[in-house]
Amino acid sequence: MELWIATGNAGKLKEFQLQLKEIADLKLHVQSEIPGFTPRPEDGQTFLDNARIKARTLKAVRPGVWILGEDAGLEVTGLGHFPGIHSARYAGPKASDSENVAKLLKMMQIRHVADRSARFVCTTVVFTPAGEEWVFTGELKGQIAKVPSGQLGFGYDPVFIPEGETKTLAELGPGYKIQHSHRAQALKQFIQKLRGSL
Ligand code: ITT
């Protein structure tokens, strides 16, 4: 089976590769393999809108194959659930992960945010070769650390401490994420549904 992944995020892609290994005979492809492929702006109002935009854009140039698009983000309670769907571009349109993390910590400091609770959320849209749409969601609850720690992972992993843990995701590493993350939960549902349908 061949599955095309609609992402340009190398950190996400690594996690997809690790997690989907358990599907026998799966060959993963990624949008960057398509010469001249240009992602559409993620201008939806929800994670689902944006996941659909990514999956549909790829489907338009690769019809009739398995396609997976995902939108994820971090919601911080004390920031009114921001950055949410703006997580990738929180510090600007071309912001790096470390710039986004720095902005998050700065905003929490400026606004004297006492409630550091947060959650990662993920919505995954899969198109089957027959054109059916499957939607899966996942969340991971936790707290925002006061300073970044750890070198593993990507995005906001260095400042996210999952519930029940004392280390950040960037310290806990990929082994933890493929068991517990928002992405892992959505992918586990996908794998289960796929097994039932093949
Ligand atoms: P694609 O749209 O190409 O998949 P992206 O980075 O733009 O890549 P999103 O629009 O889904 O992806 O943005 C999600 C942002 O939220 C991402 O850039 C990270 O900053 C953050 N994020 C999502 N999942 C994360 C995770 O597991 N760990 C850390 N940060 C995460």
Description:
There is one protein chain. The chain is an alpha/beta fold and 198 residues long. It has one domain: Maf protein. The chain is built from six helices and seven strands, in the order βαβαββαβββααα. Strands 1, 2, 3, 4, 5, 6 and 7 form a seven-stranded mixed β-sheet that branches. Helix 1 packs across helix 6 and helix 5 (174-180) packs across helix 6 (182-197). It starts with a strand and ends with a helix. The mean pLDDT is 97. Bound molecules: inosine 5'-triphosphate. The site of inosine 5'-triphosphate has 23 residues, from strand 3 and helix 3.
Provide the domain count. Answer: 1
**Secondary structural class:** alpha/beta
Q: Could you describe the largest sheet, including whether it forms a barrel?
A: 7 strands, mixed
**What portion of residues belong to β-strands?**
15-25%
- The average pLDDT score comes to 97
| Secondary structure: number of strands | 7
What series of H and E elements makes up the topology? Answer: EHEHEEHEEEHHH
The CATH class is identified as: Alpha Beta
- Under CATH, the topology can be stated as Maf protein
What characteristic shape results from the CA principal axes? globular
Q: What is Rg?
A: 17 Å
The end-to-end distance, rounded to whole angstroms, is 10 Å
**Helical proportion, percent range:** 25-40%
